[in-house]
Structure formats: structure tokens, C-alpha cells
Amino acid sequence: IKDCFRGRLIANDGKLVLGGIREYANALTNANRIVIVACGTSWHAGLVAEYIFEEFCRIPVEVEYASEFRYRNPIISEGDIVIAISQSGETADTLAAMELAKSKGAIVLGVCNVVGSSISRVSHEGVYTHAGPEIGVASTKAFTAQLTVLTMIALRVAHRKGTMAEQRYRSLLAELETIPAKVEKALKTDDQVKKIAELFKDARNFLYLGRGYNFPVALEGALKLKEISYIHAEGYPAAEMKHGPIALIDEEMPVVVIATRDSSYDKIVSNIQEVKARKGKVIAIVSEGDSLIPTMVDFTIEVPGTHDALMPMVATIPLQLLSYHIAVMRGCNVDQPRNLAKSVTV
Ligand code: F1P
User: Fold this and answer.
1) Which residues does the entry assign to the active site, renumbered to this chain (predicted)?
2) What superfamily does domain 184-329 belong to in CATH?
3) Which residue's C-alpha comes closest to atom 5 of ligand 1?
4) Alpha carbon 74 to chain centroid distance?
5) Rounded distance, CA 333 to CA 326, Å?
6) Which fold has domain 11-164?
């Protein structure tokens, strides 16, 4: 098989298997800093990766919109690690950001879905996500696959660096194995999500809130709603609400709060109280078995619990379903949203 990621893609019983970062594994492990460049949903995956790399590997990470990075004069030094994330592998902004980083001597690693795509050819090395073809324009399963791959890379680096205890490393790897079953279970919220969609399909605005690892999930939930339902939606870190968006909240405003049980649980409970005190309609994504938040909010969607860092893969599912059902109910073409291209090549 022709290997666009430098000979790392191998055939195993006729199947494609994960490629990898081998030649540059030491450079990545010893990096002083990582810069992630991506657009849209892939940028949100990059934000989750920032939290994971900083927590697990203690390497400082910056996440840049490729569409900004390419037009400014970023500080990139010889040997810096730049990771480009893309579903299509053809996004012009991401490709230009990679070329710019390479011209400044960076090692450019790719995470992308389409075998043989331009981004896989421009990367020094990289990993395919193998999520299968995205039928629609909006990225969905590719996001989950990007998170999986980025988590696996961060775990390997943390293990090599010794920034994560062996027992924790093993337990996270074991937890990662449970994610497919947890995602399947999250998909079973479909009927319940559809009923909620029916009630909010005519809303003009939505707010999405999350803290920690669930903050990028809030951004991604809002982006999916904008992309396929054409409803204005904003994602915010829940703690930022008091710095502005709180002014938007009234009985007309649906607020989706990603409030799974994690280290910021008590804080998100206070944020929900703040929204309810202003009569906002709260749709909460909670961990299975939560008995507190359902008593405070208007609608609850339960997903299986997991480690904080892995929760984005599970918690994003009901948000994708919500956007999907609202879009269908509004008569929007979910596969071909207006004004959007599958790969933005200009
Ligand atoms: C980036 C992206 C997608 C979005 C839409 C437009 O694409 O912004 O996240 O859903 O398809 O392009 P990619 O670089 O991940 O292919």
C-alpha cells in the first residue's frame, strides 16, 4: 500500500491500520511546545488535545485557527512541533499553515481522515483517523476519531516522558477501550433528543456551556447547530458567562449545559443555578445516575460516565443528534448545508 505518511501505513489482513509517528516520536516527546493548527470542528478537536497534552504530558500547547495563523507572522522556531488536524485533508487554510510552519523549520505532523490527501502528503509524519467517509459536509464521526487518535498520541508521549504514572496510563488505556460501547449507548438517546428537538426547533438562538474538557464540546455543539440548522448558537466556557453572555438569558433562551460528573461538577451546578435564576430553559447533558441536576433543569439527557478527558467523545453525541433532528424538522438538507463545502479549498 502506498504510504503517504512516510511508509507508516501498513496493510494488515487487507485492512488499513493506524499509521503513526515513529521517526519524530522523540522530537514530539521532547518538544518544548506544540502548536496545533486546524479549522472548524477539527479546531475543536485541537482544543481538547491542548487540555490532554498539557495535563498528561506537561507540554505547553497553543491551538490556532489555521485561517488566522497563515496570514500573520507567528513565532515558530526550528524544531517546533506543529500538529495539523483535518477531516478532508484538503482544507486550504490548514495546508497553507502547514507550509508556513515548514518554511520556518517546524516538524509538521498530520492527523487526517482521507488516505492520500494533500495534508497527509505535506506532513513529515502523521496518523490517519480511518473514520470512514463523512457522507455529509459537517464533520461528526471524524471528530470522535480525531479525539481518539490525539488521546492515544498524548498517552504514548506521557508514558515515554514519564509524566504519567504507569497505573494511570494503564487505566486510561483500559477506559479508552470502553468508549465505543459508551458511544453506542449515547446514540440510544436519539428518541429522547428528538422530542427535545421538537420543542426547540423554532428557537432563534441557543447558548452552549461547558467547563474544562466539556468547553470544546460546547463549542462543537454550537457549531453543529449553526452549520446544519442555521440557528444562531454560541458556545462559551460556563465560567465566562458572567462576563457577558449572561445578559442574553431570559425565558426565550435555550441553554445546553454539558454537565457530566467531573472535577468541575460543583461549579457547573452553580452555573445552572445562575441560568435558572434568569428563567433560561436548560437542557443538561449529565452522567448516568446523576440525581441532582435533573431536579434543577428543564430537560436531562444521560450519557455513560467516563474519565474527564475522554468525555468529549461521549458527550458530543447527543449534541450532534440534537442539531440533526432540529435541522430535519426545519426542512434543512443536513448533508449539504447551504454555503458550506466539504473541503474548503479556497
Ligand atoms: C474543516 C471544516 C469542518 C466543517 C466544514 C468546513 O474541515 O471547518 O470542520 O464541518 O466541513 O470545513 P477539515 O479540515 O476538518 O476537513
Assistant:
1) 342
2) Glucose-6-phosphate isomerase like protein; domain 1 (3.40.50.10490)
3) 138
4) 24
5) 11
6) Rossmann fold (3.40.50)
Specify the domain boundaries for CATH 3.40.50.10490 within the chain: 11-164, 184-329
Stated pTM of the model: 0.93
Q: Is the CB of 86 under 6 A from ligand 1?
A: yes
Catalytic residues, by residue number, are 342
Q: Report the candidate in 78, 24, 31, 19 with the shortest Cα–Cα distance to residue 57.
A: 31
pLDDT means over runs of 10, the chain (346 residues) = 38 46 88 97 98 97 97 93 95 96 95 87 87 80 93 91 94 93 97 98 96 98 96 95 89 96 94 95 97 97 97 98 96 82 68
Cα(139) to ligand 1 centroid in Å equals: 6
Q: Which atom of ligand 1 is nearest to the CA of 40?
A: 8
Chain length of the chain? 346
> In this structure, which residue's CA is closest to atom 10 in ligand 1?
138
| CB of residue 42 inside a 6 A radius of ligand 1 | yes
Contacts of 175 (CB under 8 A, 6+ apart): 306, 307, 310
What pLDDT does 200 receive?
Answer: 97
